[in-house]
């Protein structure tokens, strides 16, 4: 976690050496580590391999402008949340609109006011700290989910496969990026609530009795509760809670039906069932892909799954229709 006391790193990108020097003097006097770039290309190259807490980008640089660098940073997953300040001598409203559209967090107008500069940098360094803490929390949750998976040799790789299947299906359906991200995350943490399920129930080779089933059917609720404090998981929570629902209302934990079940949860349900059918379990061997899809079609006819999603998923797997059968 970066703090000014631990030398938070500030990138200064400006083609004017005197401007870089002024900013460097101000920032280093406050204990920050400063790295500089003479143009936008150098800034992007540095940011591709070095962690930075705040980037100060001059708007009018040769080659890539501050606007284009900011847009490039927002397009990269690893720098999407990096705080960016656009430094400009321009005061027009249109220039600020362009900066906001590019994804800038703040603006600094030349000539610099030292106190204003430092106040903005301090504020954005704190923002970066909070972001890093959230990312750390996400990493811990994912590690916990994978550790639960590792307890059962029959589910090895299940979470990773679900993430890939779900994102692939979401892409085929044209879902927005934030929904694809939510599905990627949900694929990893969807069963994290099983941390509260006794191991003898999780690994039972035969059918669960009524009491055991009641315990198992609470794991989506527990998983939602575990992940709820993360605001970044707001789109993940309904997937965790509802990925065991069925369209006919016979699923759990809430007995939702048809349109009550979020699309993203229905997507994860489909890929979850497919992965369960095509991997070995204590009570049966894995089915071939065409066998699994055939069985899923039968379950669509019973009213369990969304048939359009099953068809779209089959297409995303590039399995020839003739091989699946009717």
Which structural class is indicated by helix and strand composition? alpha/beta
Instruction: Supply the number of structural domains.
Output: 2
Largest beta sheet, briefly?
5 strands, parallel
Contiguous helical run count: 15
The arrangement of helices and strands along the chain is: EHEHEHEHEHHHHHHHHHHH
Relevant CATH superfamily of the largest domain: Hypothetical protein af1432
Q: What is the CATH C level class of the largest domain, in words?
A: Mainly Alpha
Strand content: 5-15%
Q: What do the pLDDT scores average to?
A: 87
Q: How many strand elements?
A: 5
Question: What do you see in this structure?
Answer:
With 326 residues, the protein is of the alpha/beta class. The protein has two domains: 4-132, 3-Layer(aba) Sandwich (Rossmann fold), CATH 3.40.50; 151-324, Hypothetical protein af1432. Helices cover 54% and strands 7% of the residues. It has 15 helices and five strands. A five-stranded parallel β-sheet has the order 2-1-3-4-5, sandwiched between helices. Helix 12 crosses helix 13 (289-301).
